[in-house]
Structure formats: C-alpha cells, structure tokens
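Customer escalation, tier 2.

The customer says the design service returned an amino acid string that "doesn't look like it belongs to this structure." They asked us to rerun it and document both sides in this ticket. The original structure tokens are below, unchanged.
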C-alpha cells in the first residue's frame, strides 16, 4: 500500500463525485466538492510555507472543516496533530511544543485559548474556522478558486500521517504516530469484519480527537459513505438527525446508548433507518443490547486503542450470543496473542496475560519518545497494557488494565470482577473500583458507585453482597456514593481522578 490519505479522498471523489460526502446542520458537500475544498486548503498551506513533514495541529469540534483540514494536511505533505479541545492550556502547550507544530487550525470559539498558545509555542501559521480579527478564515480559503492544484504528495505509505496524543495518566501525554498505511489497513480490516459500505450514512458524534471518531471518518471516506458531523452529543439532537437524515450507523459508548434510550419515549424516536451501532470504551451490558434489539438495532462491540488505529477486535450480531461479554474476535488483518506478564512468553488458551497485537494497523511508535516506543513495541508486537485471555474458540475476554490492577497483600484483584458483582446488585447504575493505599496490605479495593434513582441502597448492602460472591480480600473496604462518575470526553470512567479522590480521603482521615 502506497496511498496518501489525501489521495484516498481524491480517489473517492473520482469514483463517486456526486455522492454525498460531508454533511452537517447547515451544509451538504458531495465528494467532488469536499476534494476541491481540500485541494485549495492544501495549496494555501504550501503557499504559507508548509514543508513536507511539518506538523499542522487541529483544534475543533466535529465539523467538515476539521475533517477537511486533516485530509488537506496529508495532501500538503504535512502531519496532522489532532488536539483534544477539552484539555487545559498547559496540556495543549506541552503537546504543541512536543510535536513542534508550525500551523494551527482552530474553531473561533477557542480564540481566547489560541491567544495564549500563540505566545507560548512555535506556531507560525493560523487558520480560523469562523470570524477572526487576525487570522485567515477557513471558509475564505476553501472558496478561493484562484488557488492552484498542488503537486502529488511525496509522503505516503509508512510515513506518519497523523499524531494522536494518548492519555497522560502515567506521565506526560505520548504522541502516537499513525501512518497512511495504518489508516488504510484499519479501514480495510474494519469494513471487512463488520460490513461497511458506501450506502452507509454515518453519524459522527464521537469526537474526532479520539481514535473512535477519527478512524470511522477515514474509513467512511475510504468506503465512500456519507458522514454527518454533529459537534456535540445531545440525545434529542441525535434522534432528530437519525430521523431526518436516515442515519444507518454510528459510533458510541454505553453512556450514550443509555442516554438515547432514556429520552426516546419523549421525542418519538424513529430507529427504523438504523442498522447497527458500534460501541466501545467498555462491554455493553446484555440488557442494553436487548433494549436496542427490541428497536431493531444491532449493537456491535469494539475493543480498540489509538496505537492499533482503532479496532483490535469486534463482537457483532451473528456471533455466539453467549460470548456477548467478550470483546469478540480480532478484526481482519489483526493478530492477537496473550503473553505472561512477567516472562513475556505466550500462555495457553484460557489463561490470562497481557494482550499483544501484531499487524498493519500497529502504529509506528511514539513521537520523540524512543523509550516509550521500545517499551510498547516488542519484536513487532504492540503491548496493549490490557490483561485478557482467549477462549478455545478465539474470543477475546478482557480482565482489566495492567495499571488498574490492585495488589493487596500479594494477591491480584481485578477491578472488573468486583464491579460486575456490584452492578448485579440491582440498586447500582454504575460503579468503578480502585485501589486505596493501606499500611498493612499495600492497597485495598474501594468502590465508587452511583445509585439508581428509584432504589435505596447502603454501603453495607454492597459490601455484604460482595462477600457472598467473592473472596473477602477482593471485597471493597468502603463504598463511596457519587451523583456521577468522572468521565473523559468519550465516556470512559476516569480512574486516575477516583484514585486521587480516594488518596485525599486517606490523607484527611
């Protein structure tokens, strides 16, 4: 494979020029128009002084402008650095300086933040998606018919196309380098596994700054699907778009699925066009799968990471229903094996160890961080940092994150095992278990839980229930009730914040 992501868009425009490509609340562009706009922006970037390999940071909500800029960066031989706009200024400054970004595309709403970034980074070129008193506007650039077509891109194949900075829960954020070939392989593997077609109408509400939003975008272009961009998740708005645009599929997390179901009766939700919804971040509970199935919608579960360009494995309708608590089977082109955490040697089926992945989707390494790269890539295999096992039929089950493992008195406690028991209690809507420092045992488990609104449940009820199902050393020593668990922009529970909360409780005791 020697494609460039920009060429992938151009090829789609060549094959289906009048097919709807990027649409949103107030715009509709066929693929030919998307490619023309992309070409003009790439030409402008070159004229502004962008050199092959220069980094172009993008900071914006889900819009065609953000997506077009990412593809234009590739056409201009640059590397897109996708920024999480929810980060604090100090975090953004670190990422921009670490990546050495020269250019920044940003939504006008983030102008106050950009003013701080302007003076604390090496940024030289600015593009504003909206009105700006100082910077060129995106709309004017892509409408400028005088901008000449540029030369063919020279960066392709194994060259880095996009840098995505992963969570800095164990230190500073690391920039995962994803190549043009990574995205082509991810699109091919995903579409071959879960049947992705040009007839799909994909609702992109998962943020593009996350791989769960970016990979569906590039795959949609690769396959020729129509993409509807929704800047923010709002259950009422989502149901409206599904109904009016005849959306067939989308990417979500369990919290989104719950929110959509909760509001459905009040908005006369119409799911008749929906074929399936792909869900990540955590295993979807069986009752939630069944509730959507009653509406005629199939839930597909995906286990993915930034470093494998999205999907590592899928569980979907048609697979053994009894395996619904698994993360399915590896996507096409992906190889998975389980190794002993201490020795790194492969373990038998059914034995838990670290999940490793090999294939064309595996990233090239971490930007400017050879030590982290060498730790993550071992003889061509990516070490996910997740603990899991393969059953006799090849279904992948995740046990926990290595970094979430609680070691109490020399015994390993996997939080998901404890969480499953607490969720089964009936009075708990969501729960997360973390380790609390303990002078005697090293650490002990503590549960953070959210009660269901119509159920009264006490701390001792949960502890007693756990003791009737688990070894006592696995049972939480305390249950802390919250109104809501802290979550990331894509719906993942932020365990580092819970660990910080529980550590502060210990200090204040």
């Amino acid at each position: 494979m020697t494609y460039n992501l920009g060429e992938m868009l151009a090829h789609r425009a060549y094959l289906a020029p009048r097919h709807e490509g990027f649409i949103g609340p107030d715009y509709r562009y066929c693929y030919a128009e998307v490619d023309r706009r992309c070409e003009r922006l790439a030409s402008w970037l070159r004229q502004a002084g962008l050199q092959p390999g220069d980094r172009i940071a993008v900071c914006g909500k889900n819009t065609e402008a953000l997506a077009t800029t990412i593809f234009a960066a590739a056409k201009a031989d640059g590397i897109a650095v996708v920024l999480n706009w929810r980060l604090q200024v100090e975090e953004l400054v670190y990422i921009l300086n670490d990546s050495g970004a020269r250019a920044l595309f940003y939504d006008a709403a983030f102008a106050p933040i950009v003013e701080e970034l302007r003076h604390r980074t090496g940024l030289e070129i600015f593009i504003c998606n909206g009105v700006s008193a100082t910077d060129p506007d995106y709309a004017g650039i892509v409408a400028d018919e005088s901008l000449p077509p540029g030369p063919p891109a020279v960066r392709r194949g194994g060259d880095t196309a996009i840098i995505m900075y992963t969570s800095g829960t164990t230190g500073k954020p690391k920039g995962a380098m994803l190549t043009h070939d990574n995205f082509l392989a991810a699109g091919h593997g995903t579409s071959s596994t879960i049947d992705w077609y040009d007839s799909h109408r994909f609702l992109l509400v998962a943020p593009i700054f996350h791989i769960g939003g970016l990979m569906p975008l590039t795959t949609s272009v690769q396959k020729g699907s129509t993409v509807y961009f929704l800047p923010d998740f709002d259950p009422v708005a989502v149901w409206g778009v599904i109904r009016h645009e005849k959306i067939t599929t989308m990417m979500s997390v369990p919290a989104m699925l719950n929110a959509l179901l909760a509001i459905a009766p009040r908005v006369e939700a119409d799911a008749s066009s929906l074929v399936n919804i792909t869900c990540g971040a955590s295993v979807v509970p069986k009752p939630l799968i069944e509730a959507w199935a009653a509406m005629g919608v199939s839930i597909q579960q995906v286990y993915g990471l930034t470093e494998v360009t999205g999907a590592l494995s899928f569980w979907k309708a048609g697979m053994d229903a009894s395996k619904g608590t698994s993360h399915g089977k590896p996507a096409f082109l992906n190889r998975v094996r389980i190794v002993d955490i201490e020795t790194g040697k492969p373990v038998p089926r059914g034995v838990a160890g670290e999940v490793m992945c090999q294939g064309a989707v595996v990233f090239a390494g971490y930007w400017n961080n050879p030590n982290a790269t060498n730790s993550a890539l071992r003889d061509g295999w990516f070490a996910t940092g997740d603990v899991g096992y393969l059953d006799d039929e090849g279904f992948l089950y995740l046990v926990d994150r290595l970094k979430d493992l609680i070691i109490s008195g020399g015994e390993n406690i996997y939080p998901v095992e404890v969480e499953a028991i607490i969720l089964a209690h009936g009075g708990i809507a969501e729960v997360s278990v973390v380790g609390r420092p303990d002078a005697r045992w090293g650490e002990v488990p503590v549960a953070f839980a959210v009660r269901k609104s119509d159920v009264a449940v006490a701390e001792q009820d949960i502890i007693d229930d756990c003791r009737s199902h688990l070894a006592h050393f696995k049972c939480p020593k305390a249950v802390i009730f919250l109104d809501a668990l802290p979550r990331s922009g894509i719906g993942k529970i932020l365990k580092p914040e819970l660990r910080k909360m529980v550590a502060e409780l210990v200090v204040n005791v």
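Tier 2 assessment: The sequence is consistent with the input. The longest strand covers residues 428-438. The CA atoms of residues 156 and 423 lie 47 Å apart. Sent an explanation to the customer and offered a walkthrough call.
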